[in-house]
């Protein structure tokens, strides 16, 4: 957390994680157990944590830091680019990430309702 520029406190990670995680909010106790090494988050949550902390997910799970060949310097985690995602989708997703947790839940419910009304078609 310090290397990511965050104060190493459960409340700091709790707020940041719940702001960026699209699923059910986690509790203060869960984050405290993560930081103490008493429990390991699910893979889905580890990926979000890795993105927030700018490390590889396996560094969080196994305690390994990925180094570039020969440099010895830890490399920040970068999510692989999604070739299928166009500019409009990236802008929409970036805007979505700026929403509050409550607003994200509303958007998610809207998307799920739209899919029920008209399922996505091949190639879309």
TrEMBL record:
Pfam families recorded: HTH_3
Domain HTH cro/C1-type: 26-60
PROSITE patterns according to UniProt: HTH_CROC1
Superkingdom of this protein's organism: Bacteria
Molecular-function annotations in GO: DNA binding
Gene3D superfamilies to which the protein is assigned, alphabetical: lambda repressor-like DNA-binding domains (1.10.260.40)
Protein name (Swiss-Prot/TrEMBL): Helix-turn-helix
């Amino acid at each position: 957390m310090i290397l990511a520029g965050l104060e190493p406190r459960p409340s700091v990670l709790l707020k940041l994680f719940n702001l960026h995680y699209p699923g059910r909010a986690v509790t203060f106790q869960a984050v405290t157990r993560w930081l103490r090494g008493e429990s390991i988050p699910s893979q889905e949550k580890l990926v979000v944590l890795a993105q927030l902390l700018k490390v590889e997910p396996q560094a969080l799970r196994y305690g390994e830091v990925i180094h570039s060949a020969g440099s010895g310097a830890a490399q920040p985690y970068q999510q692989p680019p999604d070739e299928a995602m166009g500019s409009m989708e990236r802008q929409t997703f970036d805007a979505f990430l700026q929403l509050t947790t409550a607003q994200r839940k509303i958007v998610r419910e809207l998307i799920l309702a739209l899919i029920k009304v008209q399922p996505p078609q091949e190639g879309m």
